[in-house]
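Lab notebook, bench 4. Still working through the backlog of constructs that have no structural model yet. Next entry is a single chain of 88 residues. Request: give me the structure tokens for it.
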Amino acid sequence: MSSKEKLLKRFLSMPKDFTYEEAVKLLKDFGFSQVKTGRTGGSRVRFLNEQYPEYPIKFHKPHPDNRLKPYILEIIKTNLVDCGLINE
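Model written out:
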């Protein structure tokens, strides 16, 4: 099993300790790239896939802890399903 498959399997289990860095790697594996949200974006981040511009993934970076909240994992999962990149 490749590291990409392991990361996807871990993500789909919806762990409580999934980190922001793991999410960035997962999204990059699916062709998403982080884009600037503007000068006053603060902790907001946005990821776009050029093949699916109608499905941006937007959320706030976690702080002070690095773990993503369960609702953010759901946002990511829903967008990946909507793009047809993963099955539910």
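Notes after review: Helices lie at 3-12, 20-29, 70-82. The chain has a mean pLDDT of 91. Flag for follow-up if needed.
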